[in-house]
Specification:
single chain; about 180 residues; alpha+beta
Length: about 180
């Protein structure tokens, strides 16, 4: 089911964790709630203690929350509207700056990127092997599919004189390759 803009319907769950004063929001897509897939998980956290099936959260990760807070005060001089392929894979906190013209703004973006990478590298080990590998493959392939919709990368490569067939092969097989073997044990 999609909204009037042909985007998947997203349902939000708002909660306030016991030891955290911040309100937390999780997003679920309509498709994932009503169409069981690899993105579903089994839990015994129901009120009755019975085993229930729940859809996995559409967008929820401690690093997403950290990033949202880290970039909250940065407002680019020219905000770019993200195309649909980018909205499918990036959070609403993604910085989409266009036509950066000052050294100060460029440095602020670089500083945010370096800070983001440092936190990512320092934290990612905590989340290693915490998701079913098949879910990871599905998510990676979804990401690659959407990145392959970006017309800018191949356009720039072709403008540099690269052969169109080579550009296509590079973008699909090297830059954003989908994982072919989806039955991981």
């Amino acid at each position: 089911m999609k909204d009037n803009n042909d985007k998947p319907l997203i349902f939000s769950e708002w909660s306030m964790p016991y030891n955290d004063p911040k309100i937390k929001r999780k997003e679920y897509s309509f498709k994932d709630i009503f169409s069981p897939t690899l993105l579903w998980s089994f839990t015994t956290d129901s009120d009755t203690g019975e085993r229930v099936i729940l859809p996995n959260v559409y967008k929820d990760h401690p690093l997403i929350d950290w990033y949202k807070n880290a970039v909250a005060e940065f407002i680019p001089s020219k905000r770019r509207q993200l195309p649909e392929w980018a909205q499918n894979i990036f959070t609403s906190s993604m910085i989409a700056a266009g036509n950066v013209q000052t050294d100060e703004e460029a440095q602020a973006i670089v500083d945010l990127a370096v800070s983001n990478l440092k936190v990512y590298f320092d934290s990612i080990g905590e989340y290693n092997n915490t998701v079913d590998p098949n879910v990871t493959v599905e998510a990676q392939n979804y990401y690659c599919h959407n990145q392959q919709q970006n017309p800018h990368t191949p356009r720039v490569m072709k403008s540099l004189g690269l052969v169109e067939a080579d550009v296509e092969l590079f973008c699909t097989d090297a830059l954003f390759p989908k994982i072919q073997n989806t039955s991981i044990n």
